[in-house]
Design goal:
The protein is α+β, with helices and mostly antiparallel strands and 433 residues long. The chain has helices at residues 15-26, 62-71, 86-89, 135-143, 164-180, 201-211, 258-270, 272-290, 331-336, 347-357, 410-428; strands spanning 2-9, 29-34, 45-49, 53-57, 77-81, 105-109, 112-117, 120-126, 157-160, 185-194, 216-222, 225-231, 234-239, 242-246, 248-253, 299-308, 312-322, 344-345, 368-372, 378-381, 386-390, 395-404, 431-432.
Length: 433
């Protein structure tokens, strides 16, 4: 059983980073979810540290194991699902190379949980867990010493897995699939990577979050592999019986002045190609939610909403449903996974063609990370705008991409990839060569 103790009201933006830095030295399981004070989140931030019990596997039947694990406790759970679980939801395969090598799923019940909501802190500990069951002692360990975050990345060379000329050629080939009617839209992604390099994950996460603060930011550690995430996108949220999905499709850069930024937002809102991308994915998500929804409950609450982020404006739509009581609550995730915004339409055929033209197995990229509450509510992001770090192999990876449609201009699609990569390269202190 978990016992919470309210601590105090805070106005210290460095406190969660201090806890994260301390926790990174003490625990090999960490999940830090950071809303960056966006109003769409139910909390300011949460940090889950240490493991009491966990599910960590790449075996068959992952979703059944996931349900059994989630049903085994009424406590908080934190974790991720990898994109390649698509092979267990459909008859698909993943044959491309993966140098990060995360398990398909990892969820854990933490020893220590800190929740900050409306600037008020609550510390939750499990009974009879040694030094991790004394609230005052744990708080002293995690918060009292501010650790210097001075380990700057150095000499990091980031290379594209796919050259620009090959990217443009592949986009032209994908457009031919669209012209033949194989697909209507496909999310095509490419990897940028660094080898023989070492970083301080907490330092780089802090730089990434400062460069691109987003509502679904996350730091995740499993042993010596890391996710440093600045995602702006929600995959799926459950609140009571309501399911909410908010796909992003449509991107344009920010303006240098309020006036030019407003002009860019208007341009994005009225762009025929971007609206076409968005509405196709909205239709796909409507279909995904309908698979577990009570009859007549699927609704598009917002279409073509345009929202500003650090480097880009995004077009976001909101689709909701009510979960039919005959389904397990995690069926809502399983029936919609992977998310339509990262695949295409029709989804299965798009994923087959993705495998044909991409050069890197997506792994955790295009998956999701988030939490399940004791009430069986949940909230999961889409893992994009993220750095993956395999510490033992000294390997850094990040992927970017975008939706390819009949109206796509290959050179502009590549420019959009570089725009989306900007925050990651800035956080790493590197340039793409």
């Amino acid at each position: 059983m978990r016992h919470f103790k309210d601590l105090h009201c805070i106005d210290d933006f460095e406190l969660p980073l201090t806890i994260l830095a301390n926790g990174n030295k003490l625990f090999d399981r960490i999940c830090f979810l950071n809303s960056n004070n966006f109003s769409c989140s139910s909390f300011d931030w949460m940090i889950a540290l240490g493991v009491n019990q966990e599910l960590k596997t790449s075996s068959e039947g992952v979703f059944q194991l996931f349900k059994e694990f989630a049903d085994s406790t009424d406590d908080w759970l934190f974790g991720f699902l990898c994109y390649d679980l698509k092979n267990q939801t459909e008859r698909l395969k993943s044959l491309n190379n993966d140098n990060v090598n995360m398990d398909l799923i990892h969820f854990f019940q933490p020893l220590v949980l800190i929740i900050c909501k409306n600037k008020r802190l609550s510390l939750g500990l499990l009974e009879k867990k040694g030094k991790w069951s004394d609230h005052d002692a744990v708080w002293q360990i995690l918060s009292n010493t501010t650790l210097p975050l001075s380990k700057k990345p150095h000499n990091i060379i980031i290379k594209p897995r796919v050259k620009k000329s090959n990217y443009i050629s592949n986009v032209k080939k994908i457009k031919k699939h669209i012209q033949r009617g194989d697909i209507y839209e496909m999310n095509y992604c490419v990897e940028f990577y660094g080898e023989d390099t070492s970083i301080d994950p907490v330092f780089v996460y802090n730089k990434l979050n400062k460069a691109s603060p987003t509502p679904f930011s996350a730091f995740y550690k499993v042993e010596d592999k890391y996710l440093l995430c600045s995602s702006p996108e929600r995959f799926m949220k459950k609140k009571d019986n309501k399911i909410i999905s908010q796909p992003i499709k449509g991107t344009i850069k920010r303006g240098s002045t309020p006036e030019s930024d407003s002009q860019y937002r208007t341009k994005l809102f009225n762009d025929t190609k971007e609206r076409s991308e968005n509405v196709m994915i909205v239709d796909l998500v409507r279909n995904d939610l309908a698979r577990t929804a009570s009859r007549g409950s699927v609704n598009v609450e917002e279409l073509f909403g345009v929202y500003p982020f650090a480097y880009v404006n995004h077009m976001i739509s909101t689709i909701t449903s009510h979960l039919d009581k005959k389904y397990h609550y995690l069926d809502a995730i399983q029936k919609a996974f992977p998310m339509g915004s990262m695949t295409g339409a029709p989804k299965v055929r798009a994923m087959q063609i993705i495998e044909q033209y991409e050069s890197t197995r997506r792994g955790l990229y295009s998956g999701c990370v988030g939490y399940i509450s004791p009430k069986k509510d949940f909230d999961f992001n889409v893992i994009i705008r993220s750095i993956l770090y395999n510490q033992p192999d000294s390997y850094i990876s990040f992927m970017v991409g975008g939706a390819i449609t009949a109206g796509s201009i290959p050179e502009l699609e590549y420019s959009e990839c570089l725009l989306k990569a900007k925050a990651m390269t800035k956080a790493l202190g590197s340039k793409i060569v």
